[in-house]
Design goal:
Chain lengths: 374, 374
């Protein structure tokens, strides 16, 4: 058994070819990809980063080679045929081995792109080993490729979101009396796994005043009467992530919570209705933000409207001011406006959407209504 | 509740002061630390890396500042007083915010060190934002600091290893009949948690021919009669890791397995006996390797002898050829010689050791004997 995942025939070849095309377009001579979702995307090799160098070196015109510790080669036994494996031994200079595989720049310093999550120690190590290059963010090459999902990827995203929706409905029936935030997160992860999602990602449960911290870390805080509750979770199917946020309330919600929730939900809906090919990511953010601004709550909407989703739970396209990326069919991202009152409560409503030929498909089907639990 | 851990008074101040001293020694003007064990070590802030910039910027002479998303500031509410928090908003240029906090080089390009696990996207982002600097591996500064453990850290390492030893003994009584490698890893993680270790780290169980792959990824392979079994695991206490490897056998071992195990165990013991202040890491590796070479098995010992251990399961000092680091009291590392026969079986014996004033303390007390299970 190896951590190399099988995929539909040709899927990796297609991804590598699209990456080469983008390297041409961006005039990048070599792409260096460390253990990350980028490596998994290109080769199926799903391995954690360590202090030992493991990188895919992809010269614009040469063969892709995976440089890795020799004694770990058995773990990469089932790589696609198109990737050659190059082992290095403990005590050898791994950076020098990798450097020897780079494309030259033909009369100028080569432009070398590094995958976004490559650990800095390896980038600095390659420079120390003599690499002279113009350094480029790997997302310049990989984002335009990964952002366009294949039918295989869209299916996985749909499956993952479907499971998250089922878990929402079960949680509503579950009741949280006496539970802590951590207890609820544990229940969520168990339900995700029971319905077939990989329980990856940390999951978020925020009770009462904690719901005003958008990225709250679940604590031992016990649910109390009157608490507004934010649950934000997803898991993954074949590595492709789900991510949704729903509101719960312990006892009947305060009218102010209902009023804010209605405004946030309208912002979610208006942004959804604005999605179609050719509209920019920034415009979607602006639609959601304008509605919340017009409702007098603008200063409490403290984050971007959403993020792309795929093998990473956060990836391009980011739905944020300044992002001029024009939406295209096959892009997938969240819309998740939120409004937060420090020390009191917060509200967020989040779904995943796919861009279609003439609009958008909402992958999450569970109701946005506040679920009253006791 | 926040992900900032409380520590003994003065522990973080001591660590930051030692880091500044090392920056002076290495002529480093600014240290940039991303979400990682380095950040946890210096500030107690234990947060996962994301696509949004979060970095501690430590100029040689100025105040340490944590640059992070403004809407996540509540999660860092309990940072040590000595660290100032600087928020940036979605849509702002976070790299530019961070760059403005760097020390200048006073007439030369500044030397800027980046923590080893910082994601390359942020290093490239800082360069794109105008940083002109000599890039330095952060371990040049942080390794000499982290490698010398405080009494607080030594206590945590002892606790973590003690729990791992208890789990070894319970596993021996447990029996694995009908279990897969993944089942055994799940049992290990449950037992580690039950005895008080954080079940971090993936844990390794390798049956039969899989035991010949030193970093095998646990599979659905079911234990079969005659299988040699490698179990390698640890968890953590207050973040400080345990890491031990013990051999099991389903039914009576083949005499050849016993012979190889005895040689590997002797190599472990000889390396242990060689540890004392002043000896280099490379010498410890050489002691273990020489014994296995002399036994005619040298070509099957395919990795270094060990690695430092602390908040990371692999950290300096690496016990490997070429590492001239002289051992000092307070250093902690594994000794884990191994011998592997592809397609057949492998053997490894691993403990954690602390360097003392006149030798070494073995933290693991569980027997190295092959445990016969059925």
């Amino acid at each position: 058994m190896t951590p190399v995942e099988p995929l539909a025939a040709g899927e990796h070849a297609r991804r590598l070819a699209a990456t080469r095309t983008e390297m041409e377009r961006q005039d990048v001579d070599t792409l260096v990809v460390g253990p990350s979702t980028d490596l998994r995307y290109l080769t199926g090799f799903d391995v954690k980063p360590s202090e030992r160098l493991t990188v895919l070196v992809l010269p614009r015109d040469g063969a892709p080679r995976l440089v890795m510790p020799e004694f770990e080669l058995p773990t990469a036994a089932h790589l696609p045929d198109l990737v050659e494996r190059v082992g290095w031994k403990d005590g050898e200079d791994a950076s020098a081995v990798a450097c020897g595989l780079f494309a030259t720049g033909e009369g100028r310093p080569p432009r070398v792109a590094f995958s976004a999550q490559l650990h800095a120690r390896f980038l600095v190590g390659l420079l120390d080993a003599g690499l002279r290059a113009e350094l480029v963010d790997g997302d310049v090459v990989l984002a335009p490729v990964r952002v366009r999902k294949s039918p295989f990827e869209l299916d996985a995203l749909r499956r993952a979101s479907g499971v998250a929706d089922r878990v929402v409905e079960e949680l509503a029936a579950h009741g949280f009396r006496g539970a802590s935030e951590r207890d609820v997160v544990r229940t969520i992860q168990e339900l995700l796994a029971a319905h077939g999602n990989e329980p990856v990602g940390s999951g978020l449960a925020a009770f009462g005043e904690n719901s005003a911290s958008p990225h709250h870390h679940p604590s031992e805080r016990i649910l109390a009467a009157g608490d507004t509750v934010i649950l934000d979770f997803g898991g993954a199917s074949d590595g492709y992530r789900a991510d949704l946020t729903r509101m719960f309330q312990f006892g009947e919600p305060d009218p102010e919570v209902r009023r804010v929730h209605a405004i946030v939900d309208e912002a979610n809906q208006l942004a959804f209705e604005a999605v179609r090919p050719g509209v920019t990511a920034a415009e979607i953010d602006a639609v959601a933000r304008r509605h919340i601004d017009d409702s007098g709550l603008g200063e409490h909407f403290t984050h971007r409207t959403g993020h792309g989703i795929g093998l990473d739970v956060h990836e391009p396209p980011y739905i944020v001011a300044g992002n001029t990326t024009a939406l295209e069919p096959g892009m997938a991202f969240t819309i998740e406006p939120g409004v937060y009152f420090e020390g009191s409560f917060g509200v967020r409503v989040e779904d995943v959407f796919l861009v279609t030929d003439d609009g958008a498909e909402r992958l999450n089907t569970s109701s946005h209504a506040i679920r009253v639990v006791d």
